[in-house]
Amino acid sequence: MDMSKTLFEDKWCRVTNEKLIIKCYYFPIGTSKNIDAKTIRGVFYVAQNMSEQCFKVKGWGMSFSPCWWACDLRRCWHDSSGPVHYNVVIDCGETFYKGFTVIDIQDFLNKLGLVAPQAIFVPELPF
């Protein structure tokens, strides 16, 4: 039985007291990716902007960057009159980064910082 307490959750991810869960990660079935918070080395984030991030991000899968992107088929194409959407990239010291979308970036960063205090938080993409 999972006794994890949810600290943050949105459409694309969930942060518990033990892990980060990236929703709709695996292609083509859309299952989640669970990341033990203790393994997170770096958290990189930037507001979505297609003109600056073209070929670095993708709606789902790999782009020309060493990152696997969870499903957000509107990544960098969200309505500009709505809230700012952020691209978040997680470094766990593996070959490929893990990327996904977040809207409430400050709350997400605050909660993830509680469970992954060893991680560095950088306001730019690592590639």
Give keywords.
127 residues, 33% strand, 4-stranded antiparallel sheet, 6-stranded mixed sheet, 12% helix, mainly beta
N-to-C series of helices and strands: EEEEEHEEEEHE
Count of individual beta strands: 10
Tell the overall outline: globular
Radius of gyration: 14 Å
Provide a descriptive summary of the structure in words.
The chain has 127 residues and is mainly β. The protein has one domain. Helices cover 12% and strands 33% of the residues. It has a six-stranded mixed β-sheet with strand order 6-7-9-8-5-10, covered by helices on one side. Strands 1-2-3-4 form a four-stranded antiparallel β-sheet, covered by helices on one side. A hairpin with a 3-residue loop joins strand 1 and strand 2. The model has no long low-confidence stretch (mean pLDDT 96).
Quick summary:
This protein has 127 residues and is mostly beta strands. It is 12% helix and 33% strand. The protein has one domain (6-122).
Q: Layout of SSEs?
A:
Blueprint: E1 6-9, E2 13-16, E3 19-22, E4 33-36, E5 42-47, H1 50-53, E6 61-62, E7 67-69, E8 86-91, E9 97-102, H2 105-115, E10 120-122
Parallel strand pairs: 5-10, 7-9
Antiparallel strand pairs: 1-2, 2-3, 3-4, 5-8, 6-7, 8-9
